[in-house]
Design goal:
This protein is an alpha/beta fold. Helices cover about 35% and strands about 40% of the residues. Strands 1, 2, 3 and 4 form a 4-stranded mixed β-sheet that branches.
Length: about 110
Amino acid sequence: MCIRDRYYINVVPTTYEDLGGRELYVHQFTVNSNELNTAMLPAVYFRYDMSPITVKFAQKRESFFHFLVQICAIIGGIFTVAGIIDSIIHKSVATLLKKAQEGKLS
């Protein structure tokens, strides 16, 4: 038995833009490999896939007002979930107390 290795290499051109507007042109790589046991001669294969699309990452700053709105949204969500949980607990306890008063709790 001989071993055949196959390597698949994906290359994606990428542009990074920092806060100062400076652009860096780089490439992202992903690699996968397969190993096959065959009765044929040993071999190594490389397959390159060059992406025709460029990915662009740009840093930007959000305003302080945007930050405050996000904090208010988080706090509002916490109060909403706490209200739902409180309502469920209140209804459950009220139902249990009502059954206990009627003597239906076993």
